[in-house]
Design a protein that fits this description.
Layout lengths: L7 H8 L6 E4 L8 H8 L4 E6 L2 H12 L7 E6 L5 H8 L4 E7 L33 H7 L2 H12 L4 H14 L5 H11 L12 H12 L2 H15 E11 L2 H16 L3 E3 L9 H6 L7 E7 L1
Parallel strand pairs: 1-2, 1-4, 2-3, 4-5
Antiparallel strand pairs: 5-7, 6-7
Helix pairs in contact: 6-7, 6-9, 7-8, 10-11
The protein binds S-adenosylmethionine (SAM).
Enzyme class: transferase
Keywords: Cytoplasm, Methyltransferase, rRNA processing, S-adenosyl-L-methionine, Transferase
Function: Specifically methylates the N4 position of cytidine in position 1402 (C1402) of 16S rRNA.
């Protein structure tokens, strides 16, 4: 299913891109937010799109090629957004008017051979956005039972984390866990039959936890938050959409601290959430929370 951008109107209203400005979409994906932003920067503006997944950028280049844009500069870079300060320096870009970060993965990445999905095709259990990062099937082989349990518990609040970790270690002794199906099968077999009353697949939380771990997602978020005032100019805005309680807590506290230090203004005290209509049309938006600040 093609990826549908989450909270698109709210992003555009908050960033309010205008002709000639410079803006970054640091998780540009299929350009669901990035292309409408780039259109509004044109003519004369600069749009910088970053994604860690090369395939996303290749497709985006094609999609952007269909657009009639009159930008001064269009820069698309395959990189970890945590390295954004260095990327901007290398590209000779100073501080920008707007920055968007839409965390996590996109629906376009399911079924593409990265093993993100616990359903559908059998794929190698890579779970990394970047093709050059250590795949989860290798990482898993190096972790002990306690570490596995902690990762699953900390990053997903899975209450059967201990049982799942034990099952993974037992299975690993018999045969290596190398595909998404291998992992999903072990998890499903480790939890009670009536897991969550059948509302969600038992593999959901464990897959999310391992994805966050394999890509160091909390660390990356911490690094880009730390560089925010070097990236966004005075009067410019940063918008972050998160889908995970830990990520949202990090953004909330970081923004609050910046505001208390007098370095930024909170655009809204509470997180902006999708309307019921958006959730109905795009169930993936259900857990989204948008927070924004303006740099002083
Ligand atoms: C939720 S999707 C963005 C979708 C996009 N906003 C749209 O609507 O088309 C998140 C994207 O961020 C990318 N990503 C995840 N972690 C990243 C990181 N550390 N650095 C750069 N890109 C990252 C993923 O590859 C994915 O394409």
């Amino acid at each position: 299913m093609a990826h549908v951008p989450v909270l698109l109107n709210e992003v555009l209203e908050t960033l309010a891109p205008r002709e000639g400005q410079i803006m970054i979409d640091a998780t540009v994906g299929g350009g669901g937010h990035g292309i409408p932003i780039a259109r509004r920067l044109s003519p004369g503006g600069t749009f910088i799109g970053i994604d860690w997944d090369e395939k996303r950028l290749k497709e985006l280049r094609e999609a952007i090629g269909q657009e009639v844009l009159d930008l001064e500069k269009l820069i698309l870079v395959c990189s970890n957004y945590a390295d954004l300060v260095d990327v901007l320096e290398r590209e000779g870009i100073g501080k920008v008017n707007g920055l968007l970060i839409d965390l996590g993965f996109s629906s376009d990445q399911l079924g593409e051979g990265k093993g993100f999905a616990f359903k559908g095709k059998e794929e190698p259990l890579a779970m990394t956005y970047s093709d050059y990062d250590t795949p989860l099937y290798q990482i898993l082989g190096t972790l002990g039972e306690r570490q596995i349990a902690e990762i699953i518990k900390d990053l997903s609040d899975e209450r059967y984390a201990g049982r799942i970790a034990k099952a993974i270690v037992l299975e690993r002794k018999k045969s290596p866990i190398v595909t998404n199906h291998d992992l999903a099968k072990v998890v499903r077999g480790a939890v009670p039959k009536n897991y969550e009353g059948g509302r969600i697949d038992p593999a959901t939380r464990t897959f999310m936890a391992f994805r966050i771990y394999a890509n160091r997602e909390l660390e990356n978020l911490g690094r880009i938050l730390g560089g925010l005032t070097e990236i966004v100019r005075s009067g410019g805005r940063a918008v972050i959409i998160s889908y995970h309680s830990k990520e949202d807590a990090m953004v909330k506290h970081f923004f609050k601290d910046l505001a208390e230090k007098g370095e930024a203004i909170l655009i809204s005290k509470k997180a902006i959430k999708p309307t019921d209509l958006e959730v109905k049309q795009n169930p993936r938006s259900r857990s989204a929370k948008l927070r924004a600040i303006e740099i002083k």
